Structure formats: structure tokens, C-alpha cells
Known about the structure:
The structure holds three protein chains of three kinds. Chain A has helices spanning 16-29, 60-71, 79-84, 102-110; strands at residues 2-7, 33-39, 75-78, 96-99, 113-117. Chain A is an alpha/beta fold.
Amino acid sequence: MKFGVLVNEGPFTHQCSDSAYQFTKAALEKGHEIFRVFFYYDGVNNANKLAEPPSDDRNLTANWSALAEEHGIDLVVCVAAALRRGLNDDILAPGFRISGLGQLIEAGIQADRLVTFGD
Amino acid sequence: MSDLPPIPPDDDEDDFGVVKKFCYVNRKAPYGTVYALESLEMVLIAAAFDQDVSVVFMDDGVYQIKSDQAPEAAGMKNFSKTYRALEGYDVEKLYVSKESMEERGLTTDDFLVDVEVLDHAALSALMAEQEVVITS
Amino acid sequence: MSKLHTINKSPFDKNSFDSCLTHAEDGSAVLLIEDGVYAAVAGGDVAAKIADASSRLKVYVLGPDLAARGMAEDRIADGVSVVDYGGFVDLAEAHDAVHSWL
């Protein structure tokens, strides 16, 4: 099965990104395909490579980047939401790309299931 | 949302040949959080993909379509007129929860767009038949 | 066609728990995640709502989120089943769409 995942909140302030990450990992472990993970609203902040959480806590940005590298999943940050929040290519973490909302709609159309995580 | 995206031409480029029932469920009030504004942008972009789109306003989401919004007084931008533009984008299926409306002392006279009012049984049935549910 | 509904907020904090249960069709599934897991704990004021829900819906709670919050699985109300993230994925697959009550 193909899954699309929508992440509406940034790292740490809400559990949203953790839940989305754990779901995505579990789906991959079960042999499913992740069509795309789309980051909208404050979710774009998951793509900020400048984040430096304490070393004894998880680094969500790095976790997403590692998942993208290991499994080739498409992590897309909404350009409009990113601009609004000051996230651009200069500070984009590896594995993420900035694109339009159409990529989310495409995920809804092409994936078998779209799962939303948010506040 | 500075300029509205242009009303998409009726071409087949973005069709993918699949039409799904997309439902955007709005449960949050405007201005106190950004969800109303940015979810509306999602609906407009979705219009270009010729999907079968419904928009539901329930719980505090019914406040999003309240008429006479003047957020300039709070230093914010008034995006409420964009709800009236939905029809031009062929997004005409707008639904309001009857119970949410009434428990907030509102009537359809308070809304800036035409909506279909559904009680919870009808709204349940409508949402149950959707294929992609996007919430914020 | 039956949905998987998810609720991620405590029933004492937000109305998403009530709103979801009011609108979830009979036979659909409800998964409590994040702070939503508190609704699954037996003996509190939402017990009656959970009992009613589990009589017409399939109610699940995410084990890792219970553990995170110090809630032992033996404190869960009758009729609520515990799943892990793999179970969450299985539920999403088994239902025709996922409706997250944010």
C-alpha cells in the first residue's frame, strides 16, 4: 500500500512530528511505500537544518533526513508556508525539498491512504 | 494570501485520470490560529486538480465564514472574502454542522457564503463517504 | 467503507474526543494517540462515553503513547484494544481512509 503523510506542526512543540515519524517508520518496516511526506503550516520547521536539540534527546530533523536517505522517501516542504516562516533553501536540511501545495494534492490522489498529523 | 491563484484553465494536465472525493474539515476559529487561512489556500490549490471537493465547517470552524470580519483592527489581514471566491474555483460543496452553528448562537444569516446545513447524522454520512480527509 | 478516526487530544482539554464520537459512523474505528490516550483510562468521567463508543465502534489506543504517559495497559477501560505503531499502520490499511480529529 502507498501512504501519504501530512505533518502540520514543527518539531518539539507538538508530538505531531514524532507521531508522523514513528508511523512512517512502521509503515516502511511493514514493507509499505511512502509516496510522500508533506510538511505544511509550522510543519515546515521540521526541515530547518540549524536545529540543535540537546544531544540526549532525539533530533527530529536529522531523523527525517536519515529516513529519506535510507528509504528514498520524498520529503516536501510547502513553499508558501516556508516563506511565511523564513525557511528557505539556505537552511534546508538534507533530504527535504521545497515545492508547492500541489504536491500534497497529488499525494492525496496517488497514495492509497493520506494520514494527517497535527495539533 | 496576497493574490488569489488564477482560476485554473480546464486542461487535462493535472488530472492523473483519477477523481477522488476530497473533504477539508475545518474545526478551528479564524485569526486565533493560522489554520483557517492556510487550509483555505489548500482548497484553492486543490481546485486545479479537478477533484470532487467538499468543505466542512464544524465546531469552531463555523466561525471562519462569519460575515463582517474586520481583523485590521487587530493588525491582521482579512482573508474572509476568499471564501466567496471558492465558487469561481468550482468548489461549491460547503457544509455547516447544524449543532455547531446553533450552539454558538449563529444562523445562516451570519455567514458570508451559501452553505448547506447538515445535522450530525447527515454530516457523519457525508464524511463517511469521503476518500481523502484533510484536517487542520 | 469505514473510516479510521484518530483523536490526539485529551478529552478534558479539547472537544475533538466528543466531536469525533458524535460523528464516527457505527462500525468505524477510533484510535487514541498522543494526549488522546487519556480517554482510554478506566474509572474517570469519560468512562461512560468510552463504554458507549466501544459498543458501536472499534476503539484502540496507542501503546507507546500510554507508556510515555505512565499509564499501564491494565488500567485501560474494557472494550479498548492496545496497538503499537505497526498496529496503527494496519488499521490505516484496513479502513478506507483516515480522519484525524485535530
